[in-house]
Write a structure and sequence with these properties.
- The protein is of the alpha/beta class.
- The protein has three domains: 1-106 and 207-227, 3-Layer(aba) Sandwich (D-Maltodextrin-Binding Protein, domain 2); 113-194, D-Maltodextrin-Binding Protein, domain 2, CATH 3.40.190.10; 228-306, Porphobilinogen deaminase, C-terminal domain (Double Stranded RNA Binding Domain).
- The chain has helices at residues 15-32, 47-54, 60-63, 71-78, 137-146, 159-167, 178-183, 217-223, 229-244, 290-304; strands at residues 7-11, 39-43, 84-88, 100-105, 113-116, 131-133, 151-153, 173-177, 192-194, 208-213, 253-260, 263-271, 278-286.
- The strands form three sheets. It has a five-stranded mixed β-sheet with strand order 2-1-3-10-4, sandwiched between helices.
- The longest helix has 18 residues, at 15-32.
- The protein is globular.
């Protein structure tokens, strides 16, 4: 019997992206009793990786938005140079290129934001005027809304780079995702996790999605045993919420869906970039209606927003 060539798993080359690719590989190995040699990790440099090196202090929205971290990987997938692509779902645009599909999700990690500081235990402990660094427009807007007395600065890089910036006094605190720290085995970096009631996370935070070619039935069958239905149902609501809002890296949007007794409970928030105003809401309904619930909550928040709420968008 002819041996199949290794399944090529496409990923970015960051430590977190590689950890997510290895988790995907390990779950496939376990599900199908396959050896490590049945898989090949293919590292693909994206525009976002280059931009991060060239302009480490520029906001991501100035460099091209969410597609920065996916374009080259999806091109490789479409061209057949890789068989699947592993993504952090909070980086993913709400629509996929023609011929590609996202229909496999791994069990979701901790959705919460992590508060990182060398000297302060949490947001409430930050003194007035403290400098806080973040590359996330969503986090910056939420923080400005809750603590307008703080000074917010652009702040990017991997975990070690951000810790060094704190050591160098660039900022007194920053934020990361608890999911990423957990996957890197570095949860101890966080002073604590911020509960969603205090800071609602980004849509799809903590979730890994696996993209494939729509026509590739062999890969679809391989992925089916590792697909986590609960995560898919939660993301269906969250990503419909984001899509209806036309969310991008230029839009401060937060959303989190939970499953409770056959229902999906979706909380959402939109903010002005300067944090001067936030509009929040929530909806519940049958899990089967997750997509409509997400779209309906988005429409509700948009109906409450003043005409100039999104005036910063060009």
């Amino acid at each position: 019997m002819e041996q199949m060539p290794p399944l090529k798993i496409g990923t970015r080359g960051s430590p977190l992206a590689l950890a997510q690719a290895y988790e995907t590989r390990d779950r496939l190995m376990a599900a199908h009793d396959l050896p490590e040699t049945a898989f090949e990790i293919v590292v693909i440099k994206t525009t976002g990786d280059d931009a991060a090196l060239i302009a480490a202090d520029r906001a991501l929205k100035e460099l091209g938005g969410k597609g920065l971290f996916t374009k080259e990987i999806e091109e490789a997938l479409s061209a057949g140079r890789i068989d699947i692509a592993v993504h952090s779902m909070k980086d993913m645009p709400t629509a996929q290129p023609a011929g590609l599909v996202l229909d496999c999700y791994l069990p979701r990690e901790d959705v919460r934001d992590a508060f990182v500081s060398l000297h302060h235990a949490g947001i409430a402990d930050l003194p007035a005027g403290a400098v806080v660094g973040s590359s996330s427009l969503r986090r910056r807007a939420q923080l400005a809304n809750r603590r307008p007395d703080l000074k917010l600065v652009e702040f990017r890089g991997n975990v070690q780079t951000r810790l060094q910036k704190l050591q160098d006094g660039v900022a007194e605190a920053t934020f990361l995702a608890m999911a990423g720290l957990n996957r890197l085995g570095r949860a101890g970096v966080a002073r604590g996790a911020i509960e969603p009631e205090e800071m609602l996370p980004a849509v799809a935070q903590g979730a890994i999605g696996i993209e494939r070619r729509m026509a590739d039935r062999r890969v679809a069958a391989l992925l089916e045993p590792i697909h986590h239905a609960d995560t898919a149902q939660r993301l269906a609501a969250e990503r419909a919420f984001l899509a209806t809002l036309d969310g991008s890296c230029e839009t401060p949007i937060a959303g989190l869906a939970l499953l409770e007794g056959g229902e999906v409970w979706l909380r959402g928030e939109i903010l002005r970039p300067d944090g001067s105003e936030a509009i929040r809401g929530a909806l519940r309904g049958p899990v089967a209606d997750a997509v409509e619930i997400g779209a309906a909550l988005a429409r509700e928040l948009l109906a409450e927003a003043p005409g100039d709420f999104f005036a910063w968008k060009r």
